[in-house]
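Sequence only, no structure available. Ideas?
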Amino acid sequence: MLLTIALLIACGDKDTLACGPGTHEEDGLCLPDVDTAAPAPGDDTGAPLDDTGADDTDEGGATDDTAGGDTGSTDDTGGTDDTGGTNDTAPPGVDADGDGYTSAASGGADCDDSDAAINPAATEICGNGVDDDCDATPGDCAWTGEKRLSDVPYLSLDGDQNNDRAGETLAVGDYNGDGLLDLAVGAPRADAPGLEMGAVYVVYGPITEDLNLYDATPIFTGPRAEDYLGAGLLTVPDLDGDGDDELLIGASGKRQGYSLATNGGAWLVTDMDSGLAGAVAYTPASEESGFGAALAAADLSGDGVAELIIAASYDEDYAGGAGIVYLFSGTPTATSAEDADITLYDDGVGDRTLLLGSATATADLNGDGQDDLLVSAPNYYSADLGGDSAVLVFYGPLSGVTFASGADHILYAPYTDAADLGGYINGLAITGDNDGDGYPDFAAGSPDRTADIPYGNNAGIAYGVGGGQLSGFPSQATSLFFADWRAEGSEGTMFLGYTVSGAGDVDGDGRDDVLIGAPGPGTYSKTGGAALLYYGPISGDVTDLDADINLYASSYGWLFGASLASADLDGDGLSELIAGATTADGGATYSGAVLLLPWGDY
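Reply:
I predicted one. Tokens follow.
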């Protein structure tokens, strides 16, 4: 109105109307010219109402985005944006949730600027699937350093009777075809019901609460006293096409000095509801051979079908050797070891019998597309080489009769003086790709090896060898001194290396990690045993004190870490540590237990 009055005064009588610049005559009045280039309200694209001039109204605002105005309720960061809603894109440096970190969209580090609880300084919450600390790994919960078992949460699957020693062996697979992982627990000393018949308990996932293993379904028991059923356990990928994994169970027979009370055996369970009676039975070729204690499965013949591998490390059925490894091809049928398709014999390598096959493992170590075989020879000895205990490597394909002397590699544990002498390689496992070179790696444990430290008897040692490293070894017989890494117990009687296992990629760095069990009581501390996790890659000489995670039991004599695995058993998408404590007082004295612990930052 004031503008109109002013123009009327300036223009004078309408009959002689002469309007000034920027105005025009209309019905006898001088009115402002209309800017036909002006945008619709709130549109920043026109002129002169764009974001670079001085007259941007932003739906009624008085000034532009850059010239000191646009700070009220209608600016880009206030309640209304240029198109009528909330702001389109946060301008640089915005901290919308007030947590002290600017948004990732504006160049900052806050991955969720709508939630003040999520920022780079937040504590990661285990298992919630949210990247709380904005490190691009949702739900990661890596431990660091030492943890006492009593200070962390865990589930306990307890043995039921005195001296069951549940947890001596473990296997993980989907045995009922529901898409969830299940757990098989071996208790070879269990009286079930006869003396030390042995038992295997299968617990279906998801496992989310404590359990007495006697309540598990199904339970397999040995057919005879002192069978030690469950001394060997192995998950075999589906062979019969029903979508379920199979479970291979070994019964080694009880050791009595250098003899065995029973002959052993192995059973391939393809239907969990059928019991051993419905399983495929494999019987030993000779008495007291330890048949069934070490198991593996892989396509070692190259025919596209996995062989079942069953070792008998005390079998002396060939020329005075000790230890035979049997491979069974084709459709599983009840078979005697005498009819095995491929047989591996101890033919006198070294200066004493080998006890060939006390542990076995398989993988394509050299990357040629063909599975290869690893076999321990704990009694190997060579005075000339300075070797004591060994791992033999056989590149596939294999066929017919094979001899230890024909191994592609004999990797022997070195000794240099009396303090280093002794020890048997009994632990053996593929540990994934720890060094990131694309080849699977393996670890071998010698738990009773003496360390060159005060009171170092049975400190134990584990060796790590890369599959890609093997081709560079100088000769067939090579010292494990050249291994990628060596982990040694820092105290006597730790028995480090009693078990070795792959852990998967726990820390999420793209390289697999390694689990090592040290279940002995030690000399000074950690008297209940320990489970050690080393993040890959590992290199050089390390001890238990260098482990990235050292989880130990302080209850004397639990043998915590006697068996180890890592898998998602509760169905939350994150793996748990699975650890046997074979002499823990679970449901009874020395009944044993298996403990499930989420990998977490506590």
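Confidence is low (pLDDT under 50) at residues 1-17, 28-32, 34-90, 257-261.
Hope that gets you unstuck.
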